[in-house]
Amino acid sequence: MIRTFIKERISWIFLIVLLQLLGLFMAYLDPSLSLESMLYYMFLSLVISSLFVIIRYFRETAFFKELDARDSTTDITTLPQPNSPFEALVYDQITSPVEQLEKEASINQLLLEQEKDELLSWIHEVKTPLTALRLIIDRTNDPTLKSELMHEWLRIHFLLDQQLHQKRIPFIENDLFIEKVDLEPLLYSEIHTLRSWCVKKGIGFDVELASSEVLTDAKWLAFILRQLLTNAVKYSEEGSEIRIQSSVQKGQKILTVADNGRGIGPRDLSRIFDKGFTSTSQHQDQHATGMGLYLAKKAAAPLGIHISVQSTVGSGTTFTLTFSQENQFLQIQGV
User: How far is 292 from 167, CA to CA, in rounded Å?
Assistant: First the structure.
């Protein structure tokens, strides 16, 4: 701080020193001026100048130290008030941009909230014709055409579902209802939704639930399972089987979803939960959004669910959901 203060006022210091040297030079040239008197005057002026600089240093640095201590979110009304015209100028230069930025941030926040509400409203509006389309597909007599239409309907349905939950996740704490949930009907409901896709690919399910009751939110757990099952069906080979098993290990409920698909490469395994990441080995896959697993991971955190994955290229992938024990879950929720 001292170095900065001196650096900014070096021209003042040079001017003071120059005036002292000028007086000494005049006393040397003019015999009528006493050298002793001039030296006495120089001494007094240097003392006064030094005191002035020291006083200004403490006053001005105190002001700027207070400014440095404030973070960018500080209300401008709490900024230290200026004690001099110089400080008033600096104060205006700081507060004016801050006021403008706060105003712009408030407007942008309002626009984002409005955009979110409009998008959620649009999604709900689209669900009505989508439901009507499903009824029309169900009345289609051509099995091949019905299968193709149902596959495309599922893609639209899941994309809308992802978008809806993506907008809700930032406020997930307001939407949670924790209760004891039976996994069996939840799983079979999600499997039933995928039935036409599974029939088309000849994919079956092997479900073994040694422990089927968990403490969680049914709606958000269903969303997480939907992402895992959709991925499993999408990347499984035709005629393969998806295994779903539950168990209890060290007092914790564990649910695994395993497929026999193409698997995930080692360089991709640590990135599959990143937002927007699809694949480095299958980059030509235009249908992947890179959002499903990211949203599943985001939704699992407030529920106290840990998602892990193991995979071997060409042999399949296993996702594991580890549920918190009841007392651990209550600690996570702050109860």
Answer: 13
Distance CA 185, CA 156 (A): 24
Yes or no: say if 317 and 257 are a contact pair by the CB < 8 Å rule: no
Handedness of CA 179, 185, 188, 189 (dihedral sign): negative
pLDDT band with cut points at 50, 70 and 90 for residue 73:
very low
**What mean pLDDT do residues 236-242 have?**
92
Rounded average pLDDT over 111-120: 79
163 contacts: CB under 8 Å, gap ≥ 6? 119, 123
Percent of the chain with pLDDT over 70: 84
Token digits of residue 86 = 């110089």
Q: What CA–CA distance (Å, rounded) separates 303 from 173?
A: 9
pLDDT at position 334 over 70: no
Asked whether residue 153 carries a pLDDT value surpassing 70, the answer given is: yes
Sign of CA dihedral 285, 286, 292, 295: positive
State the pTM of this model.
Answer: 0.64
φ/ψ (deg, to 5) at 94 = -85, -45
Q: Helix, strand, or coil here: 214?
A: strand
Beta strands in 145-223 (DSSP E): 179-182, 204-209, 213-216
pLDDT beyond 60 at 2: yes
Q: In whole numbers, what is the pLDDT of the chain averaged over residues? A: 82
The tokens of 184 are what?
Answer: 């069996």
Domain boundaries, the chain: 2-100, 181-332
CA–CA dist 127, 291 (Å, integer): 20
Residue from 158, 162, 182 nearest 255 by CA: 182
Query: Which CATH code is given to the segment(s) 181-332?
Result: 3.30.565.10
Q: Is 259 exposed, middle or buried (0-12, 13-18, 19+ CB in 10 A)?
A: buried
